[in-house]
Amino acid sequence: MAKLTLRTIEAAELPPKGEERMLWDDELPGFGLRLFSSGKKVFIVRYRGGGRSGTRRRLKLGTYG
Prior knowledge:
Elements: H1 6-11, E1 20-24, E2 31-36, E3 41-49, E4 55-63
Antiparallel strand pairs: 1-2, 2-3, 3-4
């Protein structure tokens, strides 16, 4: 994927019914967009709690639109 811009977010294809899809920004590690088949788009951040050996977690920043 490339940098998440207004143009790339609007052009993103929605996943099939009952599934979800992630788009990750290449320039900002851990920043992405979660796409739902309903059309909902949510900005997220992926991080590790507790250092390198910690559990991967996702934090919802907010919805798009």
